[in-house]
Amino acid sequence: EGENASIAALLPDGKRAASVRINDVSGVAGFIKPNDTVDVLITRQAIGENRDAQVTDVLLQNIRVIATDQQAQNKDAQPAVARVATLEVTPH
Question: What is the DSSP letter of 71?
Answer without folding.
Answer: B
